[in-house]
Amino acid sequence: MTACILALSLESRPIMDIDIEAVCWPGYDRPAMQNITVVAKAEDGRLLCTLECLRWAEPCFEITRADNLVAAFDEHSAFAYGLAEDVRKRRRAMTARHGEEPFVSGFIGIIVIRTEPDAVGNRFGLELIRYLKRMHAGMAWYAGLQAAPYDMEHGSAAYRDMRRRLTAYYASDRSLGFKEDAPRSSPGLMTALWDQE
User: Does residue 97 register a pLDDT over 90?
Assistant: First the structure.
């Protein structure tokens, strides 16, 4: 399903038309869980960037009571489990930042953003997150991600430097609202409240 075509212009890059497609499929064992994949492709069909996320949707969702989120994300991958566990541990910081617990439809956990080597530097990851946010307009959602490099040795100086750069990258688009809730205890954990825009 073709979703839209966008033109991006960057300082050192030519304008490139991209096609963004999104696919959502249910978690058959857990009706509240959906898997969503969003991809950016060049006009010639080349894959440029992929975003994978899990969406947990339920009536009257409360992040302060989201223990079932951890079990559900654990069934997907270790990285998804880590994100949900960090959110569980830091949910009080999230609600403190957003004020009294708002009425939200659920939680969107961005698990992976993978940019193809020849497409790095075009900010396609942010464009896919913006698209994901637009997909959910009209209802309020918590969103979260780990600003962590997947392919580097955890804990190394290079890893910490890349995590800082990724954190700045995801925070650079203020319309997305991502901020670190607990930078000392959970560095790289970024959450946002996507309200009904």
Answer: no
